[in-house]
Amino acid sequence: MPLLNLKSLCKGLDGGDWAGFMRDWDRSLRAANHPETTRYNYLLPVAQLARYLRSPESEYAGSAAALDPTAVKKRHVESFQSWMIETRSASTALNKHKGLQQFFKWLVAEGEMDAHPMVRVPQPKCEKKLIPVMRDDETKKLLDFVRAKKDFSAIRDEALIRLYYNTGARLSEIGNLLLTDVDMNTQSIHVHGKGAKDRRVRFGTKTARALSMYLRARAKRRYADEIPQLWMAERGKVALTPNGIKLMLKRRGKRAGLGHVHAHRWRHNFAHEWKLAGGNTGDLMLLLGWSSEDMPRHYGASAAAERAQELQTQMGIGEKI
To answer: Where in the chain are the domains?
Structure first.
């Protein structure tokens, strides 16, 4: 099932102009070659704003803005943003803010609005949390837990975990791989990154062994020849989606006693280990598919804090007398 189902996103938005504008904007995004994940992340907050303005929780239910996005004012967005912070989080509200900015900019460019309502709506302030890296001993504990069973899901999940651990690739980049993206001869994968930026990523011998075992097990599965995606679900004629992988990692991590395990912890770990080994920032950006130098700083923040603490201990400041 595709991630972006426009009909499903627009469900409950009949009797107004929201669904029509969302459809037209999606067409514009597709024409600009935006990937499905980007289009979904842009369109979702628009649908959520529309539903909020129509809901009994909003004081604007029945207003013109509830039926027509071109009638949305600053107060409508601020009310929605406050509700998002209260019911979700400030970081979630910030993501919605960014998506809505793009939508209303498009409405202005289309001549549907003179000025968009986001201009004077400040972005929510978020705490900058240090995301802990996924240490080697934690990854080993997770792999040991997975390998306790010898079934298909265990073989598949070890290959998945090793690819994340070994490459530092994004959740969706590994999750959306096709069979044809894997080259066992060069031990590499063809990754489809953000912003339609593709790159080839190498993996090591242990990951190659785990992946080979999975490919052999996969070939014996029913419907294997009919599914182009690399990762197969345990049952049925369906692929394992990135969201399914996310839930699997969370479930496996909890049962292994590791708390919240997610793919981006290995991405942070990759950046940490790279910098610890004296690796070049420019090369790291190429490997992880970054175009902004802000990203290495963001992903290296947790690791930098740990390195500073280690150095502080070694220097012994304040313990010399």
So the answer is: 6-109, 136-310
The count of C-alpha atoms lying within 13 angstroms of the C-alpha of 71, restricted to the half-sphere facing its C-beta, is 13
CATH of domain 136-310: 1.10.443.10
pLDDT of residue 1: 45
Query: Which pLDDT score is estimated for 63?
Result: 94
Secondary structure of the chain as H, E, C letters? CCCCCHHHHCCCCCCCCHHHHHHHHHHHHHHCCCCHHHHHHHHHHHHHHHHHHHCCCCCCCCCHHHCCHHHCCHHHHHHHHHHHHHHCCHHHHHHHHHHHHHHHHHHHHCCCCCCCCCCCCCCCCCCCCCCCCCCHHHHHHHHHHHCCCCCHHHHHHHHHHHHHHHHCCCHHHHHCCEHHHEECCCCEEEEECHHHCEEEEECCHHHHHHHHHHHHHHHCCCCHHHCCECCECCCCCCECCHHHHHHHHHHHHHHCCCCCCCHHHHHHHHHHHHHHCCCCHHHHHHHHCCCCCHHHHHHCHHHHHHHHHHHHHHHCCCCCC
pLDDT of 254-307, one tens digit each? 999 998 899 989 988 888 888 777 787 777 887 887 666 666 666 656 666 666
Q: What mean pLDDT is reported for the chain?
A: 89
CB 67, CB 18: distance < 8 Å:
yes
Q: Which two tokens stand for residue 286?
A: 């190429």
Q: Answer whether residue 22 shows pLDDT above 80.
A: yes
Task: Compare 159 and 270 and report the one with higher pLDDT.
Answer: 159
Helix pair angle (152-167, 242-255), 10° resolution: 100
Q: What angle is formed at CA 231 by the lines to CA 227 and CA 234, rounded to 5 degrees?
A: 90
Find the mean pLDDT for residues 97-119: 94
